[in-house]
Automatic annotation (TrEMBL):
InterPro entries tied to this protein: EF-G-like_DII, EFG_III/V, G_TR_CS, P-loop_NTPase, PrfC, RF3_C, RF3_dom_3_sf, RF3_GTP-bd
SUPFAM superfamilies, sorted: EF-G C-terminal domain-like, P-loop containing nucleoside triphosphate hydrolases, Translation proteins
NCBIfam families reported in the protein's UniProt record: prfC (TIGR00503), PRK00741.1 (NF001964), small_GTP (TIGR00231)
Keyword list, A-Z: Cytoplasm, GTP-binding, Nucleotide-binding, Protein biosynthesis
Name of encoding gene: prfC
Subcellular compartments: Cytoplasm
Its job: Increases the formation of ribosomal termination complexes and stimulates activities of RF-1 and RF-2. It binds guanine nucleotides and has strong preference for UGA stop codons. It may interact directly with the ribosome. The stimulation of RF-1 and RF-2 is significantly reduced by GTP and GDP, but not by GMP.
GO CC list: cytosol
Biological process according to GO: regulation of translational termination
Main location: cytoplasm
Keyword Nucleotide-binding: yes
Binding site for GTP: 20-27, 88-92, 142-145
Annotated protein name in UniProt: Peptide chain release factor 3
Amino acid sequence: MTTEQINKEVEKRRTFAIISHPDAGKTTLTEKLLLFGGAIRLAGTVKGRKAAKFATSDWMEIEKQRGISVTSSVMQFDYSGKRINILDTPGHQDFSEDTYRTLTAADSAVMLIDSAKGVEAQTKKLFQVCRMRGIPIFTFINKLDREGRDPFDLMEELEEVLGIRSYPMNWPIGQGRALKGVYDRRQSRIELFNGDDHSTISVEDVKGYDDPLVEKVAGEHLYKQLREELELLEVAGDAFDMEKVSRGELTPVFFGSAVNNFGVQTFLDNFLKLAPPPTPRKSETGVVTPEEPKFSGYVFKIQANMNPAHRDRIAFLRIVSGKFERGMSVKHVRVGKEIKLSQPQQFLAQDRDIVEDAYPGDIIGLFDPGIFRIGDTLAEKSDITFNELPVFSPEIFAKVVVKNALKHKQYQKGIDQLTEEGTIQVFRTIGFEDTILGVVGQLQFEVFEYRMKHEYGVDVALQRQPFQFARWVVGEHVDPTKFRVNSILCHDKNDNYVALFESEYAMRTAIERNEKLQFLETAP
Ligand code: GDP
């Protein structure tokens, strides 16, 4: 395959994640997007998944058996000459470190916000990971058919809470019951929301907002308001600046209503124009671009026991460069061995199809008999190692107690394997040698307990600890006695120092008292 052919495939691809707080409408939006790709079968699958969530007890059982985030998968569809990969970031009870890691496989993000609620906690956390990576972020403000907050208020919140400037691509004409439609600022047209009959949504070209048609549609009162607001945006709002969008400093904002399929197509069309094709990734020996003809990729997630009948694991690999072909041999760089990729899977919601070939931006699932770890690099005739996967700071902590001391060997094996899979992070307290687990979501603890019992035969008890933050401590002369007030000093699995803090105040105090040390949010 020539570089030119690979380039053509790369140019076609868009790989992104939707970030939001539960109930903002992510399932609904995903479903509508899939429908545009003609993937109706998949849309049904998304719904099925959702319905299954409510049967909490069954769902928990399945989730535990399968490891964490069985619902987080990759959906691929074609639309308007593009091949689109949506990375599903688990956002409900199964929120975990996996959610953060999945974001490293995305080239851009869509931030979905409920117009009545604004920026919520989980959105904020996910946004911060996107910000750290400097990827473009597009905003969809949903549920315009309900009484929501003032659009200016919402923009101000994006700026104040997230520190990102915004550029409204369209602007609501009324809201809730009074919603008439949106005015498309970029393409100078109006999209009409036809009241009760939501199915017929029409689009009319206009000559700016002075066009009499706009006034006719809006009615006198709303039109006056719309004019004032649009004028204010022109005078006081940010200009559209593609460079800033690319760096994730300015977010294009779209208003709409996912459930009514209102504004979704406009969003998708614009998103596909503005979002980047697969972007380069950093390796220890420099940046690797997608056009590089040799195949390479990295594992960003490992999912255990997808099929309870076989205890297999699936390693999710983001392709960074070159072309993947089924049966090809690649180097598993960490272990220094050639392996043959003969059983690759692609994930279309819950279905598994065998992939014959794939390109940068695509995600493939590799059958994993236990040889992969999070962050592993696979590369064709090369020794590159990607370093795209930071270890994120956990937010919940518990001390582990083994109920049967005789099981110590299995316990250690379980701890090692589950740490490798990225299910948990393990810290040892200095002096006492207690084992403290750190996770991002509560479900990770439950999965840990369940799998220790069922896969390793070890009963463990978890005692919640009052810590809320972890910081990796780097520098000379780290003194454990300085971490005794509402904090504790530990080692991570690589013997790095990590301090756990009970409060932000405790953390700030420690930082002030240890001026010569660095406190990092991700592992060094
Ligand atoms: P998720 O938790 O983010 O996946 O959210 P869902 O897609 O399940 O949506 C949560 C609820 O909001 C559901 O009852 C949806 O029907 C509803 N919903 C989604 N989009 C809209 C919208 O545009 N308007 C209104 N009124 N409800 C919506």
